[in-house]
Specification:
This protein is α/β, with parallel strands linked by helices. It has helices spanning 2-27, 73-81, 91-99, 113-130, 151-163, 176-191, 204-223, 280-285, 288-309, 348-368, 377-384, 400-415, and strands at residues 60-63, 103-105, 141-147, 243-247, 250-254, 256-259, 262-265, 270-271, 314-320, 333-337, 343-347, 372-375. It has 12 helices and 12 strands. The termini are far apart.
């Protein structure tokens, strides 16, 4: 009797798994957002809802970090309030709705240039095409998001983690040739990645059941770890009020922005542009320019290799300003997270200079390789004159209103017939 029941149980499990393996690949694209994490990270493009069919055609691909995913309060809200279905929450959805063009995201949260521009798009593309019954064509357009707030930091940290033998070593000691040799080797590793060709690899349903539960638990845990309203970290102050700091013995008001004709006190600790050495004294005292230059090189080399992998794709660099650079600041000083996410207080005019310098640096790289450069700062500034585009909880990412504004700007790139290279100015 026990043997019979055991056989019955095993047969039932086998039939369920067989049915699941037949059905699951056909309905990956219909999975609700809450179950998105069940799928292998390299296959999640198939489950994205910003396209007409499971496999996109003549599509736009977004890549970069969490901004190209749609991270922020809008995503956190729909995750909590929608168990079934896949509601809009990102630029990909909004561009798709406005243009009718399929849009997917190859991006990865927290990624620097190597991972966000090269490793993730190429790995995902190759992996999807290695799975039975899937054939993903190259994208027609690539929108590469460069985020002013931490991409420089992420690239520097990437070099430190991989090229420094001890923690005591300084990143400034890393030579450009050493970086180039390292990047070339890492580029090839992605291209030469060996994929499992066993039956197990194509058992998408079974793998999702076995590994997906832990993935979901991890993602839900991260989504619930939102910043708390502690102190001034993400607190909007009453009209005309702001944080204060003692500078040269004087009490100075911080983080005041003009909005709807009124002064509004923004949170402290906002992400800002990295601190270039802007004068001779700073250049002698430190090596920030050198570090930023090395970081930009990682961005450029990753960009060039991606263009060689997708030679027929039209590439556009989308410059995303940091929160500090997104509002019309009227206080003399700003409290922000700067160079290596260090906390600093600096004159507003100096931060504006650093924003313009980094913007022009990224613009120069894109022009050198004949890519389009879209600076979203102008449309963002216009939007912030009448309301917030970050928060109220997550001030490191856009809220729904800003993703809508950004998407309208980007959608225009594909609604017009002019296919010429676009080069925006770096204006403040």
């Amino acid at each position: 009797m026990i043997k019979k029941n055991l056989m019955l149980l095993l047969s039932s499990i086998f039939l369920i798994m067989a049915f699941g393996e037949w059905l699951f690949p056909k309905f990956i694209g219909k999975l609700p957002l809450r179950l998105y994490g069940l799928i292998d990270k390299d296959l999640r493009v198939l489950a994205q809802s910003s396209k007409k069919n499971q496999l996109p055609k003549d599509y736009i691909a977004l890549t970069g970090d969490s901004y190209a995913i749609g991270a922020g309060d809008w995503l956190n809200e729909v995750r909590k309030s929608n168990f079934f279905g896949s509601p809009d929450y990102s630029a990909a959805h909004l561009i798709h709705k406005k243009t009718g063009i399929d849009v997917i995201s190859f991006a990865r949260a927290g990624a620097g240039s190597f991972d966000g521009i090269w490793s993730e798009p190429v790995s995902q593309f190759l992996y999807i095409n290695s799975i039975r019954d899937y054939k993903l064509s190259p994208p027609k357009h690539l929108l590469i998001f460069f985020y002013e707030g931490n991409d420089i930091y992420d690239n520097i940290q990437f070099l430190r983690d991989n090229l420094l033998e001890t923690e005591k070593e300084q990143a400034e000691r890393i030579e450009l040739k050493k970086i180039q040799d390292f990047l070339n080797a890492e580029f090839e590793k992605v291209l030469n990645r060996q994929f499992d060709n066993s039956i197990w690899k194509n058992m998408l349903f079974t793998r999702s059941i076995l590994h997906g539960i832990s993935n979901l638990a991890e993602e839900w845990g991260l989504s619930n770890k939102q910043p708390k309203n502690k102190g001034l970290y993400n607190k909007v102050m009453p009209e005309g009020k702001g944080a204060f700091a003692l500078i040269d013995g004087k009490k100075v008001q911080l983080n005041l922005a003009m909005m709807n004709g009124k002064k509004v006190g923004l949170p402290t600790h906002l992400q800002g542009p990295p601190s270039f050495a802007l004068n001779n004294e700073e250049r002698v005292a430190g090596s920030k320019d050198n570090l930023i230059g090395l970081s930009v090189n990682v961005f450029e080399q990753s960009l060039v290799r991606l263009a060689s992998f997708f030679p027929q794709v039209k590439i556009k660099i989308i410059y995303i300003p940091s929160p500090v650079s997104s509002y019309k600041m009227v206080s003399s000083h700003i409290h922000f997270r700067g160079f290596m996410q260090d906390i600093d207080v600096m004159e507003t005019i100096e931060i504006e200079k650093r924003h313009i310098k980094l913007c022009n640096t990224i613009k120069r790289v894109t022009r050198n390789h004949n890519f389009s450069f879209v600076n979203s700062t102008k449309s963002l500034k216009k939007a912030t004159s009448t309301g917030f585009v970050h928060g109220p909880i997550d001030w490191d990412h856009f809220n729904k209103r800003r993703y809508q504004v950004l998407s309208e700007d980007l959608a225009e790139l594909f609604l017009q017939t002019d296919e010429s290279i676009r080069i925006d100015n770096c204006v403040y």
